[in-house]
Amino acid sequence: MVMREAGENYLETILILERKSGPVRSIDVAEALGVSRPSVNKAVSVLKKAGMVDQQPYGRISLTERGREKAAEVLGRHNNLKRFLTIVLGVGEEAAEVDACRMEHVISEETGRRLAAYIGSVMSRQGLEP
Question: Is residue 130 a part of any domain in this protein?
């Protein structure tokens, strides 16, 4: 299934919030993304139909195994891109965050794998933790 950028952003945000503070509410997602609760509810409905999240009516949002894998994949691409931009290119943190968020949705799987390997080797040579 090809997922659109917005769906990937929701999954990534749910994963980040879950790791940070446990169970995720729609208001948490709305605040993190700067969107309305009805927008979150609509997105969650689409993600639920796609088998990416579970949510009882008005309950907490949780990632399915499939959703967790996709969210981790997106977050990994984001982190690798941000590291590349900051460590290799010397881009400032804020610009790197914004650019990585845009770029994470358009790079191919092959480019993502190669970028991860490259970042890992650069970080190892610099004595940084990957």
Answer: no
Q: What is the DSSP string of the chain?
A: ----HHHHHHHHHHHHHHHHHSSB-HHHHHHHHT--HHHHHHHHHHHHHTTSEEE-TTS-EEE-HHHHHHHHHHHHHHHHHHHIIIIIS---HHHHHHHHHHHTTTS-HHHHHHHHHHHHHHHHHTT---
List per-residue pLDDT tens for the chain, 130 residues long.
456 888 999 999 999 999 999 889 999 999 999 999 999 999 999 999 999 999 987 789 999 999 999 999 999 999 999 999 999 999 999 999 999 999 999 998 899 999 999 998 988 888 877 6
- Pick the last residue of a domain from 34, 49, 69: 69
Are 98 and 117 within one domain?
yes
